[in-house]
Amino acid sequence: MAGPLGLPPQPSEQEFVSCLRNGLILCNTINKIQPGAVPKVVYNPSICTSWDIQPLPAYQHFENLRNFLVAVEELKLPSFEASDLERDTLDSGSVAKIVDCILALKSNHEWRQYAMDSLVRVLADHMFNSKENIDQYLLKSWNQGEKDPIKLFIKIMSGSLQEPQELRTSLLNIGVEFTSLQTQLENDFAQLGTQIRGASAAAHRYHQAVKENRHLYNMLQELRGNIRVFCRIRPMFHEEAKCTIDYIGSDGSLMVIDPAKPQNARKIFQFNKVFGPTATQDEVYRDTQDLIRSVMDGYNACIFAYGQTGSGKTHTMCGPSNRSNEDMGINYMALNDLFQISSIREDVKYQIRVQMVEVYNEQVRDLLILGSLTGLLILKYKSTLEIRSCSSNGGLSLPDASMHLVQSTADVLDLMKLGEKNRAFSSTAMNERSSRSHSMLTVHVHGDDISDSATRSCLHLVDLAGSERVDKSETTGDGLKEAQHVNKSLSCLGDVITALAQKNPHIPYRNSKLTQLLQNSLGGNAKILMFAHVSPEADSYGETISTLKFAQRASTVELGAAHLNKESSEVGELKEQIDGLKKALAIKEAEKATPPQKMKENVPNLDGSKQITEQNPPRPRRLSIEDPAAPKNGTVNNPDERKMLKPPISGLNRRLSSDGSMREKKRQEFNAAVSHIHSKFSEGETFKENVLCDQVEIQDSADEKASLDDENRRGIVATEAFHQCSPGTCDPSCCSQLPKMESGSQVHLHQKTSDPAAILDESVTAPDEISLVAKTQTRSSGINASRRGYHIRKSPQSTGKFIHGSQRR
Ligand SMILES: Nc1ncnc2c1ncn2[C@@H]1O[C@H](COP(=O)(O)OP(=O)(O)OP(=O)(O)O)[C@@H](O)[C@H]1O
Segment Disordered: which positions (predicted)? Predict the structure, then answer.
């Protein structure tokens, strides 16, 4: 390592030590092992040709030796003392130290050599394996047996020295490419931004257009009228039977004839549409469909089927009992459509839930109670549901009826099957499978829109029970009771329709469960579609006319614009809060008002329904002309009240009774009609069931109107209603001028006025309602009855209508 030392081949220890004494060999050696270990080696080149001949001056010895020993210390190798080299006579211990140090230097050198070799080998292997930075030349030399790692490493390193330049060039290229890519990307982003802005503006415009479209669509519906009436005629059961349908016009007109009396004039009715016996379920539904879309837009709708027993109501609403997919009724098809619309409208998330109830014998029952009715379920099924005011209960009139979330038409089918299974049916002479209850399938639709507003609407699908003449249906016992309840509730429905048609301030919704349930819809909050069903057979002529008249009257009802039940989610939450606060307040007030021991009995009715009943006790039916608020002396001071009691007089009527001589004749006719009524009352209950299609039309006479107007001007005329009372409770002087009633009669027509010369002045067009308004003259001198005129047109069926409806009539 240090080159030739000028020592003999077998030097003595003394010779060896003296050769090391000036420190030059030691310093050079350690510098070979660790380059720079002794930064400055002192030597004299001129004299230093041979280690032993020309010794260095002492200070040089000392400095080299000291530097060497410091370097040995740093390398953590065994060391010795400088004095060990100075001694002339070396003892074995000091020589051993020097030798140990030299051997340690040797081993260190060898170890470093070995480590370097290994490192180079590993590097070379790695580079070779990865085939990177090894040019063909290197590979070739390797393959040709140049296995000296150092040489190879040096070659590699020298090769790599050229690489940074190449790398720098490629880096520059990459930088340029990157910049251009960045620019490209920025351009692309800018373009994308423009496109997104354009798309969002288009989406906004689209939503506006959809909104506008829905608005216009619903406006169109309003223009068509929020109550629409369709008539459907069932096919004849027997081809050879005589038919009452004479002509069906495509414009919705229908002409019927009485085959028993072909000489009689044909009757013409006008509806929005008439479906003949060949119309399919699909055709019928197609004209119903637009109503369903309105429900999805947030409007309430009500579709109900009306008609005599066996005329096809259940067929239209549910389909036949052994139905296939094509025969499905409106209920199924409507729900199917609701699902389809909800899947198309991606901007609104809809939730559809259904309830199904029936009104059976004036009790509301849940039809969707699951299969096996056991334990509590039986109790619940049997217990009747309470109808609540809709303002509380989140708009639910039957909060206790089970509510079912439906997500597919299959769910709907299952529920409908269950409902039909639970519904009351039985066989009558008129229909093998006759519904003995009104069924109501209510679909609640809740839509959450992307603009954070929500719609809540409901669709009532009502299959009414059929009106029936118990003599024809041959029902007795329970069946008779069912029929009576059905007839009564239909009569109440008729009253409501009449009151609505006449725009009466009081609509008698509370007279039956059916009308209570339909109150929200009929009260102008919904779009209504009525299907009037007709059996075409000749022996149903009476019922057909009655149904058609009812339907025609319904079509004259002017409902206000249906409300759009849409609100922002905030408004919804606030409403809920208000409901909660109202309930809390009601409880607090009830607690304050009620002594603690009575609290239990008077638990406040949170929905307010009871309070309403108490505040507004059901008013007597209009047959007995009611006005409990009217002053006893028979005068009505409020002109509005007078207007209310006295319906407008038609021009036709005016023309009819211009002749004063007719008045007396009319009075006689009226007396005859009332006597007829009395005799019919005495025949008892059965009669009431047999007079469904009877009618009385008592028409106003224009000349009487003229005379009344005249008297009104003079301020002496007042209007008073008839009222009804039990025999024995009325003042005989009040009714002395009326025809005497037979003993045992349940109902007593009684005029409240003290003036005996009451004149009837009211036209009644309702088949099941009669309003008799008495025009009373209160002149103290009395009145000549002949001055009053009334016109009664009485048909053979007329009298029954007079009493059709409630028992109180
Ligand atoms: N348009 C029609 N096409 C074919 N069959 C019909 C049609 N309408 C009714 N029917 C059939 O007439 C019969 C009586 O119909 P449905 O039971 O629907 O009458 P309904 O008015 O509901 O009677 P109810 O009031 O007694 O329940 C059923 O067998 C029914 O399938």
Answer: 589-666, 777-809
